[in-house]
Design brief:
The protein has about 230 residues and is an alpha+beta fold. About 20% of the residues lie in helices and about 15% in strands. It has helices at about 70-75, 80-85, 90-95, 100-105, 120, 135, 140-145, 155-160; strands at about 125-130, 165, 175-180, 185-190, 195, 200-210, 210-215. The radius of gyration is 17 Å and the shape is globular. About 45% of the residues are buried. Residues about 1-55 have low confidence and may be disordered. Keywords: Signal. InterPro entries: Adhesion/Biosynth-related, FAS1_dom_sf, FAS1_domain. This is Cell surface glycolipoprotein MPT83. It comes from Agrococcus terreus.
Length: about 230
């Protein structure tokens, strides 16, 4: 039976030893004059991100979550950035995000050649709960080994499709129960920067792609029937 752990976001987006670690998704404000020391157990800083023309982009409009600013600092531009992801369909956008390499491998046939959901994900509108790399790394080694076998292909597809909800749901409407593509329900609780998906924390939600709304989460979700 599959198990999961709930790793925290600490260390996800540290950019060098002196990188600022920020919290919240407030994309406005002025630059604080005080210097800050990075921490590994919080995503907070007294120095908000500077305003600029990039943040006027609609891709920033609906962001929520404690790690959005840190994500924006780690990937400030390019195809994997907040703005860059908004230009591509979701499977392509995820493949460009350096925090989603394990999810990309899982949906594209790299983890298991019998499971390739790229065309499906790119072919309609979805809400995607996207576990970051640390979430996959927290899975037990025997679980990861199983998911790569022919016998584990069905299990892998079941788990992946449990992270996908038909249609795009914005952060201000995401709280509640949602039936996934897998067929079972996922529950979103909280509001604003304090959203949870089942037991997973939303690190940065409302990330737009050309056909999906993405919520980066800190653990891999398991369908209730597999719990």
């Amino acid at each position: 039976m599959l198990t999961k752990k709930n790793p925290k976001m600490a260390g996800l987006v540290l950019v060098g030893a002196a990188t600022l670690v920020l919290a919240g998704c407030s994309m406005g404000g002025t630059t604080a004059e005080e210097s800050t020391e990075p921490t590994t157990d919080t995503m907070e800083s007294s120095e908000p991100m500077e305003t600029g023309s990039a943040m006027d982009d609609p891709a920033y409009a609906n962001l929520v979550g404690s790690a959005c600013e840190a994500y924006d600092m780690e990937v400030p531009d390019g195809a994997g950035s907040i703005v860059g992801m908004s230009q591509d369909p979701v499977a392509v956008a995820a493949s460009n995000n350096p925090m989603l390499t394990q999810l990309t491998a899982a949906v594209s046939g790299q983890l298991n050649p019998d499971v390739d959901l790229v065309d499906t994900l790119n072919g309609d509108e979805f809400t995607v709960f996207a576990p970051v790399d640390e979430a996959f790394e927290a899975l037990p080694a025997d679980t990861l080994e199983l998911l790569q076998t022919p016998e584990g292909a069905e299990t892998l597809e079941t788990v992946l499709t449990y992270h996908v909800v038909p249609g795009q749901v914005a952060p201000d409407a995401i709280a509640g129960m949602h039936t996934t593509v897998q067929g079972e329900d996922v529950e979103v609780t909280g509001e604003g920067d304090s959203l949870m998906v089942n037991d997973a924390t939303v690190l940065c939600g409302g990330v737009q792609t050309a056909n999906a709304t993405v919520y980066l989460i800190d653990s891999v979700l398991m369908p209730p029937s597999m719990g």
